[in-house]
Design a protein that fits this description.
The complex is a heterodimer. Helices cover 50% and strands 17% of the residues of chain A. Chain A has 7 helices and 3 strands. Chain B is of the alpha/beta class. The N terminus of chain B is likely disordered. Classes of the chains: A alpha+beta, B alpha/beta.
């Protein structure tokens, strides 16, 4: 199963089965949830900032969906822990994709960057960080769903 | 249930012979042909239909109902010939009742807008079901909101069948004006009691709108026997081209309705002060229609009719029964919907702790094509308590070997994610 190992490499399956930072933060400083309307993947992200109001002190997520969407969000959580919100708002998706390290078709790419989009929206809402143009479509979908 | 009786005259469908009509089924990927189990989304096209499309474009194409030159007349004859084939296919009493549309979705929107906006208001109820495809759900929800009517769903039971005992309670809530239901659920394959619902709708003074997009490819449709008021189909699910469909409606209702799309050909006369509408069915066919596609839709109807709709239904029934048997052999597979004898050739299922997208992906590597997702039935997904399901669906070219490949692929997926 060469193709299987290429897409679902061990680290992906590990994050899928044992997601890092799984759960909610009751009094989170920033929160957003989103859904990939194509396949129904769901992700909610909670962030608490440190005393400087910018450092991501604690970050957690909840969700359900395919292995790629959930593992990618879990990997994202590890990546952003302790970094500044300003940095993460500007984080290019390529940095996450490099970490994920698997070839993705356009459909699966949406699964992989769902968590990052949700996190950017959460930071945007809490701190007014800009949402780069590339995220606008996703953000519109997320905002729409959050209004439900 | 009475046992299914098969008439002696019925010819059994020969799927192996039919497969030779479909180029896609002969393509190999890594040495394997495709097991195409996603016909409920859209069917593949046989050479006969593709030849008809090309032949029409090459030898008969011009705009219809306009030119007096010979080729324009031939185009009109081809287009109107397809209308007659569509009429016969759904057993309508007149071609005046057959409107060509872009799709079943457009047909339903036509009724929702052109009938709904003028006939619905506060105190009225628009009733759909928990099983509807978004195309027979969202237009009604939207037009209900626009007109101030209320929107209600007939619930389903745990087997995915409509709970008709909820009808009395719904009727007490207001004036039921529209009942909209699919004849066959695109997600669960449930065959819905449309005749019974039509009776109820008419007792309430409501119109009955049937989404037959998923039924028309698979079984004989008889609008007069169903007794409904509107019925919509899409050619692409019936081995025909995409971009064309048909809406059947009662002539008296069509006559009383305002037009939907406005423009060329749907008019009687246009003056600065006012415009009057053309005759049925042209009143609802504004602009240049998908002419060649409608013609090829006619060829698809010929193709299906030559195989025989009863034989198609029987073939799919055998496949879905076999598929449900084989799926039950895998621990951790949950199948949704009614037993095989009360469903069409569609089976939705989930593999425990593996998301349908991941299942579909693993199956794709085995060149088994299924659908993973919500199948445009989010209210149904909510009722089932899942975000998505895997769906395998069968058609004239499907064979038991493809079910075996599906099952083998699921076993692999299960092992891989264990």
């Amino acid at each position: 199963m060469g193709e299987f190992d290429q897409l679902y490499r061990e680290v992906i399956l590990d994050h899928y089965k044992n997601p890092r930072g799984h759960g909610a933060i009751p009094d989170a400083d920033a929160h957003a949830e989103g859904q990939n309307p194509l396949c129904g993947d769901e992700v909610s992200i909670y962030v608490s900032f440190g005393d400087d109001g910018d450092t991501i002190d604690e970050v957690k997520f909840e969700g359900r969906g395919c292995a790629i969407s959930q593992a990618a969000t879990s990997m994202l959580i590890e990546m952003v822990q302790g970094r500044s919100a300003t940095d993460i708002a500007a984080l290019p998706k390529e940095e996450l994709l490099e970490e994920i390290g698997i070839p993705l078709t356009p459909v699966r790419l949406k699964c992989a960057i769902l968590g990052l989009g949700v996190l950017k929206v959460a930071l945007h809402r809490a701190k007014g960080t800009p949402l780069p143009e590339g995220w606008s479509t996703l953000a519109v979908e997320l905002e729409f769903l959050a209004d439900d | 249930m009475e046992p299914v009786t098969v008439t002696a005259a019925q010819t059994k469908l020969d799927a192996q012979r039919i497969r030779a009509d479909f180029a896609y089924l002969e393509e190999l990927r890594n040495g394997k042909p495709v097991a195409f189990l996603d016909s409920a989304a859209s069917a593949q096209k046989p050479r006969q239909v593709l030849d008809a499309l090309r032949d029409f474009y090459e030898h008969s194409y011009a705009n219809v109902h306009r030119g007096v030159y010979q080729r324009a007349e031939r185009a009109t004859a081809g287009y109107e010939g397809a209308r007659e084939k569509t009429r016969a296919f759904v057993n309508a009493s007149s071609t005046r009742e057959i409107v060509f549309t872009r799709s079943a979705t457009e047909g339903i929107n036509l009724v929702a807008y052109a009938w709904g906006l003028d006939n619905l208001g506060p105190g009225d109820l628009v009733v759909v079901t928990e099983l509807e495809h978004h195309s027979n759900y969202v237009p009604w929800q939207y037009i209900a909101k626009r007109t101030g009517a209320r929107f209600r769903m007939i619930p389903i039971d745990d087997l995915g069948e409509l709970q008709l005992d909820a009808l009395d309670d719904i009727a007490r809530e207001g004036n039921v004006k529209v009942v909209a239901n699919n004849l066959i659920s695109n997600t669960l394959g449930t065959v819905n009691p449309v005749e019974r619902l039509t009776e109820w709708a008419h007792e309430q003074g409501a119109i009955m709108v049937v989404d037959a997009a998923q039924a028309a490819p698979h079984r004989a449709i008889d609008v007069q026997a169903l007794g409904c008021d509107f019925l919509a189909v899409s050619a692409h699910k019936m081995c025909g081209p995409s971009g064309v469909g048909a809406l059947w409606g009662r002539a008296d209702l069509f006559d009383a309705m305002a037009p939907f799309n406005l423009g060329g050909h749907m008019i009687r006369s246009v003056r600065y002060e006012d415009t009057t509408w053309g005759q049925l069915p042209y009143k609802f066919e504004a602009g240049t229609q998908p002419i060649a596609e409608a013609y090829a839709f006619g060829a698809a109807i010929d193709y299906l009719s030559a195989i025989g709709l009863d034989a198609i239904e029987q073939h799919e029934h055998e496949l879905v029964e076999y598929a449900m048997e084989r799926l039950a052999e895998i621990d951790g597979v949950s199948v949704y919907g009614p037993p095989a004898d009360r469903r069409a050739g569609i089976v939705s299922f989930n593999l425990e702790s593996v998301h349908p997208h991941d299942v579909s992906q693993v199956l794709d590597w085995e060149n088994v094509a299924i659908r993973g997702g919500h199948h445009c039935t989010q209210p149904l997904m909510k009722r089932l308590g899942v975000a998505a399901t895997c769906r395998a669906s069968f058609y004239v070219y499907s064979i038991p070997d493809e079910v075996d490949r599906l099952v083998a692929g699921l076993v692999k997926a299960k092992q891989a994610f264990a």
